[in-house]
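INTERNAL TRANSFER SHEET
From: sequence group
To: structure group
Subject: Biotin-dependent carboxyltransferase family protein

Please process the attached sequence and return the structure record in the designated field. Keep the field labels unchanged so the import script can parse them.
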Amino acid sequence: MSRLTIAASTPLCLLQDAGRFGVRHLGVTQGGAADWRSMAWANWLLGNGLNLPVIEITLGGFTVVAEEDCLLALAGADLGARIDGEALAPWRSFKLRKGQTLQFTQPLLGARAYLAAPGGFSAPQVLGSSATVVREELGGLDGRGLPLAKGATLSYQGETLLVREVLAQHRPDLRLDTPLDLVLGAQLGEFSGQSLFDVFNSSWTLDSRADRMGIRLLGTALQYQGRPMISEGIPLGAVQVPPDGQPIVLLNDRQTIGGYPRLGALTPLALARLAQCLPGTQVCLKPVVQEVAHREQVEYLQRFIDR
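Return from structure group:
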């Protein structure tokens, strides 16, 4: 078994995998990596299953020390990673020698980096997943939903000799310079005509009030004209509009039901891009139908098979 010791961490550094499924009827949310694309590429670099446990590092402030020689992989945001002071770019696997320190400092591009180990990091499964959901006290290194803390040990048992990188043409673009796709649905037709125009013809600013539950979008207030709603199930990426008219995109740690009207839901690819955006980023929304979103998702997943 190989080990890393955590020398520094923050409450935003968590053990994640693909998340929990089939348990929302119990009131248990999904959890899992906010940027599933980067998690999958980090695992792919080592020949792992794409959904094995990784470390999600948000905004930096994370440092580990190798207890043995090891081969790890890094994908996602550029958080100023350094090995004993030497810069380390993401989207590649790399060697970390015994006693060397891997440090993540601050965001240079994107918000979340993903660190993978051969065979995935070791952690107990709770309801079929090791994903950390702090609010529900589920997952993580000990199964109790705690963030990664200084002094803790990260262990893994897999082995690999793969030293490779994701080719530039296959790396996700972490700059948000194209609209986010929104699958139309739910209560879309219950908003005023002006609001429907504003949704897709205005820019929205990501509020600082954001976490793994959701991100508030600031812009022109939207007007809902329908009847009061009874709470209903909430899918990943749902865009709710509370009474103040400012949309909220619900993320991995969202509640399982809600009573605010919804415009629809962001596609998985759009959510992965949104997860890499910092507060203050300007975003636009683009309407798509479910068939188009499904086709694009299947085409993207094919990249992992073709590489």
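Handover comment: The chain is about 15% helix and 30% strand. The helical segments are 36-45, 193-201, 268-274, 290-306.
Transfer complete.
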